[in-house]
Predict the structure.
Amino acid sequence: MKGRVFSGARPTGRQHIGNYLGAIQNYVKLQDDYDCIYCIVDIHALTTLEATPMKSGLQENIHEMMLDWLAAGLDPQRSILFVQSHVPQVMELHTLLSMVTPLGWLTRVATFKEKARMQPDNINYGLVGYPVLMTADIVLYKANIVPVGEDQLPHLELAREIVRRFHYLFGPTFPEPQAKLTNAPLVLGLDGVNKMSKSLNNDIELAASPEDTRERVISAFTDPARRYRSDPGHPEVCNVYRLHSFYNPERLGELGAECRSAGIGCVECKEALARSINKELEPFRERRAELAARPGYVKEVIADGARRASAIATETLTEVKQKMGLISRQVIPD
Ligand code: TRP
């Protein structure tokens, strides 16, 4: 039997090239070898919404993000693509798992401490339970493989602890979920300092127009020591060069040498990068426009995803409730 993959991502709206290189690309590949379930976690988004409001509404963000996922190759025929709150069983399971999760496990998680520091006036109950909801996401579908970035490893560790404690109390029920670390490169934003992110406005959206992409690339920071065209550059500290490594791997050596000898200027180097990004993204952008033009398509995909996810969820939840003694075993048809 194929393993089951589950991953979730927050509804951040239009995705950028960092999202693609770091996660989406990998989600697409995993479809070949696993049964995959990919979820836009709108309930998780609520834990930080008051402290960091979104520029667009949740509904718009979900729609734009799903369009990007689909255009990038997530296949609704093979995988289950859905929105977290559309399968409300996850909230029931979250409550049940919360009963077996010591509070101390949650308050000592580094990500919780960090978020509490970021939003001291809104350390809400949901924020503390964030990893419990994430555990519920994964185990509701009995997923055994969870592709995530390194920042999520503490949450996965906690998920396994919760699963083990549940098993100790009520008997074996779930697979112990394993993180699958992607060989995801760290993609820095156009500022060359911070991780590429929408909120820092240092990103290049997959769905951007070629002109917009070019303008953004031209605005990117390069080697700060290279102030004049004739100054030799240091590609090893230049983020534009780093981006070339993703979009122009075969020309990297040449570009590096030309930068070091000041044979090529930063503007020229960025023009070349913009051209390569635009070329690479052209089929994606065409596909996205086609899908966006089909009325109701995204809504159909997520409704179908919710139906399929819900069938699995209901089965798991029934089993959990039986084990916890909330319903008797006899009434469950087999
Ligand atoms: N916490 C994850 C993040 O911020 C998102 C997430 C929610 C998730 N539920 C999940 C990831 C389940 C993997 C599995 O990126």
Remarks:
- The mean pLDDT is 95.
